[in-house]
Specification:
CATH superfamily: Aldolase class I
Radius of gyration: 17 Å
Order of helices and strands: EHEHEHEHHEHHEHHEHEH
Bound molecules: 2-phosphoglycolic acid
C-alpha cells in the first residue's frame, strides 16, 4: 500500500503574515501521527514557515530548484539552500515554469538530479496542454517528459521521487479531468515505469493536480493509480486544504 500525499502549491500568493497564518492553521488541523501532507511555499517565506511547522506533521517544499549546485547564477536557489530551510520536497517542471520561464525537459531533469543529490525528494510535474490532448498526443508528451528524467537520472532514481500528473488545461481553470481521464494517464505513467522496473512502479506516488477541490477530491483519490494531489488554489485556504487531505 503506497502512502498517500497531499501537497499544496501556494505559487506567488500571499504575504509573510498570511503565509504564516495559513501554515499555522493547517498545522493546527493535523494530529500527531498524520503523514503525507506538505506545502510548497515561496522561497522567501520558507524559513518563517519552517519555524512555524517544525514539530508538526506538515512537511515543506520549494516550488522549484536550480539546475546548478552553486555559483554565479543570479536569482537561483540551490537544493542545498532548500535543504537548509527545512525542505523535504521540491517541485520540478511545473507547467508554469515550463511555459512562462523556459524550463526545458533537460533542465527539469537536471533540477531533479540536483534535488536528489541533497536528499530532497523531487516532485516531477508532467502533463499535456489542451492542444496536445486534442491532437491525441497526450501519451507522447508524457513519454517525452518522463523519459528526459529517466534517461538522465536512471529508473532507480524514481524510487525516491514523486510524480505529479497535471493536465495543463485543468490548472487554475476550474476544469478538472474526469476521474477516468486522470486514472487513464496515471495508469499509463505507472505502466511505462513498470516496463523498466516493477519495484519502482509499485512504490512511486503519482499525484493528480488541476482544480482539485474539497468536492471532487474524494472521487479522484479513489482511483487506483492516484496516490494524492498537488493542490494550487484550494491550498490557500486552510479549511479547504484540510478537507482535501481528509478525503484521502
Ligand atoms: P490548481 O493548481 O489546483 O489551482 O488548478 C494546481 C497546480 O498548479 O499545481
Amino acid at each position: 500500500m503506497r502512502q498517500s500525499l497531499v501537497m499544496g502549491n501556494w505559487k506567488m500568493n500571499g504575504s509573510r503574515s498570511e503565509g504564516l497564518a495559513l501554515a499555522n492553521a493547517i498545522a493546527a488541523g493535523l494530529k500527531d501521527g498524520d503523514q503525507g501532507i506538505a506545502v510548497c511555499v515561496p522561497y522567501v517565506y520558507l524559513s518563517d514557515v519552517q519555524g512555524a511547522i517544525e514539530s508538526t506533521p506538515l512537511a515543506l517544499g520549494g516550488q522549484n530548484v536550480a539546475d546548478q549546485s552553486s555559483g554565479a547564477y543570479t536569482g537561483e536557489i540551490s537544493a542545498a539552500m532548500l535543504k537548509e530551510c527545512g525542505c523535504t520536497y521540491a517541485l520540478v517542471g511545473h507547467s508554469e515554469r515550463r511555459s512562462y520561464y523556459g524550463d526545458t525537459d533537460e533542465s527539469v531533469a537536471t533540477r531533479f538530479c540536483q534535488a536528489q543529490k541533497e536528499g530532497i525528494t523531487p516532485v516531477l510535474c508532467i502533463g499535456e496542454t489542451l492542444e496536445e490532448r486534442e491532437s491525441d498526443t497526450t501519451f507522447a508528451v508524457i513519454d517525452r517528459q518522463l523519459n528526459a528524467v529517466i534517461n538522465m537520472a536512471g529508473i532507480d532514481a524514481l524510487a525516491d521521487s514523486v510524480i505529479a500528473y497535471e493536465p495543463v488545461w485543468a490548472i487554475g481553470t476550474g476544469k478538472t479531468a474526469s476521474d477516468e481521464q486522470a486514472q487513464e494517464v496515471h495508469r499509463y505513467i505507472r505502466q511505462q515505469i513498470a516496463a523498466k522496473s516493477q519495484a519502482v512502479a509499485d512504490k512511486i506516488q503519482i499525484l493528480y493536480g488541476g482544480s482539485v477541490k474539497p468536492d471532487n477530491a474524494k472521487a479522484i483519490f479513489a482511483m487506483p493509480d492516484i496516490d494524492g494531489g498537488l493542490i494550487g488554489g484550494a491550498s490557500l485556504d486552510a479549511e479547504s486544504f484540510l478537507a482535501i487531505y481528509q478525503s484521502i
